[in-house]
User: Fold these one by one.
Assistant:
Number 1:
Amino acid sequence: MASLILLFLNLLYSAYALKTSKEYAKKLSELRSQSERYLKLKAEIDSKINYSTAKNYAKSDAFTPVDWSKISILKEIK
């Protein structure tokens, strides 16, 4: 009798383990597809904006970034 109970519990656990494994595999494949989509979108945005070229041009043209703490409009808003 005890062996039948153990066998039944083993079958229940195996079913649970298979279900969980399938869920994890599905989530992993979704994560991979989202990662690929993110990389494609990032490459597309970089190519359209061409941020790296603009950044290099700004550095070569002696561009100095704005110090936002020195702007009076922002001080008044706070």
Number 2:
Amino acid sequence: MDHLWRYPNSTTEELSQAADVEITELYQFIKEGKFSFTYPKLTFPCECCRQPIRQGRICSSCTGSFKEAFPVPAATVPAARTSGTRTSHKTLFTSRGSSRR
């Protein structure tokens, strides 16, 4: 991949042609994080809209659309512990003859 050293602003398509590597293989390498983020134009398509992205599976726009379409209900917060609640204690056993707590 000497091409990236010489041309760090190469796009995924340019690298595919220069290195004679299938673009789908490059997409997989990028998804797996095998290229540093110092190469800003190495992208792969969003699984929904096909816009170029650098990480994840879907772009921020599609993520926002999913969040609007499928809102997550507010999580229930467990009741606070009362001061009289008993907590468990663990005992550590060592090979020494004396027992300490």
